[in-house]
C-alpha cells in the first residue's frame, strides 16, 4: 500500500475516534436515562433501602459520571462486558451464543438485497421504457411501502405454512438446518432493503450513461456487457456502496423485528428481551455492539468508495 493510501486510512481512523468516544459516553449515560432504578432491579422488589444503597455502591452508580465512564472503559479494555441482572451469566457469553444468528441474518439479507437490486437497477437504467422496467419500478414502489414484519408473515404463509418446504422459526443445529432456517428471514430483510438500493443504483447508472466518456465509448462501437463492465460499473459503484452501507446499518435494527418475527435467537431479540426486563448491563453492552457495528460498516464503506472511485487522489 502506498504512503498516500496509508495516510488516507490513518486519517479516517482518527475521524472515528470522536464518534466512538461519544458512543461510549452515551452507553454509560444510558443507565441513567432508562426508566427504573438498576440498583432496585438487581436488589429485588423486597430489598430494604440499605440493601439497595449497597448494590448502588457495588455498581458504582453513586460515583460521578466521569468515574463511571473511566470504570466502564477499564472493564472494556479487560474484555469485561458485565453480567446479566436476570441470570448472572457473563454478557460476553450471551453475545457469543447469540451473535451467530444475527451474523447469518445480516449476511443473508445483504446477499439477497444485492442479488435482487443489481439486475433491477441495470434493467431500469439500460431499458427504462421497456414493459419489464416499468413493472419492476412499480413493484419496487409497492415493496418499499411494505413493513418487514408483514413481508415476513406473507413469506411464511406462502413458502412455509402452505408448502412445508421451509421452517417458520428457529435456528437449527447443523449447517444445513441453519441454512434452511435463514432462507425466509434473509428474504424478508433483503426484500425490505432492496427497493432503495435498486433505485439508487439505477439513478447512478443513468448519470454515468449520460457522461461524455460513455457517449464516446458507444460511438466507438462498445456495447453490451463490455460497456457495462468497463465504463458503467466502476463509476456507478461508489454511490451504490455508500447506500449499501446505510442499508447494512439499517439491517442491524431491522434484525430486531425479523428475529422477533421468526423466533431467531439473535442479538436483536436479546436486546428486546433485556429492555423489557430492565436488564441494564445487557442493554448497555448490546447498544455498544450495535453502535460499533454501524461505525465499522461506515468506515469500511468510506474506504471502499475511495478505492472504487477513479477520481480519488491519494495525497
Explain the overall architecture.
With 315 residues, the protein is mostly helical. The protein has a domain at 91-308: MetI-like (MetI-like fold), CATH 1.10.3720. 78% of the residues lie in helices and 0% in strands. The chain has 13 helices and no strands. The protein has helices at 3-33, 38-43, 49-59, 65-77, 91-126, 131-144, 148-161, 175-181, 183-209, 212-219, 224-262, 267-276, 280-308. Helix 5 packs antiparallel against helix 6 (131-144) and helix 11 runs parallel beside helix 12 (267-276). This is ABC transmembrane type-1 domain-containing protein. One of its GO terms (biological process) is transmembrane transport. It comes from Spongiactinospora gelatinilytica.
Please outline what is shown here.
The protein is mostly helical.
Structural class of the secondary elements?
Answer: mainly alpha
| CATH topology group of the domain at 91-308 | MetI-like fold
Query: What kind of sheet is the major sheet?
Result: none
- Uncertain segments are none
CATH structural class of the domain at 91-308: Mainly Alpha
CATH superfamily of the domain at 91-308: MetI-like
Oligomer: single chain
Named CATH architecture of the domain at 91-308: Orthogonal Bundle
Name the shape in a single word.
Answer: globular
Number of strands: 0
Count every helix, treating DSSP H or I runs of 4 or more residues as helices.
Answer: 13
Q: How far is it from the N-terminal to the C-terminal residue, by CA?
A: 13 Å
Our Rg estimate from Cα atoms comes to: 24 Å
- Helix/strand order: HHHHHHHHHHHHH
Fraction of residues in helix: over 70%
The share of residues in extended strands comes to under 5%
